[in-house]
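Ex. 9. Protein: MarR family transcriptional regulator.
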Amino acid sequence: MTEGHDVQSLSDVDIHVYEAVASEAVEHGGAGLARLVRATGLDEDDVRASLTTLIEHGHVVPKGEGYALGPHTFEVEY
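Predicted structure tokens for MarR family transcriptional regulator:
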């Protein structure tokens, strides 16, 4: 996990997936892969790759069979 969670190191795709996780977390308490694919309009492989990056950086954490937001010090507007 990267200290400080530098969002500027993320790609546009990573930010798009992060925002989808945030939206799903607010609405449903977590985000499953199928919902994230639908919400982002990206290929499943791209979403999986982005989730791997987001998890490595601590922005997203696995939650049950889905994903939730990790600890963060910034806000996302959507």
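Check your answer against this statement. The domain at 7-69 is CATH 1.10.10.10 (Arc Repressor Mutant, subunit A).
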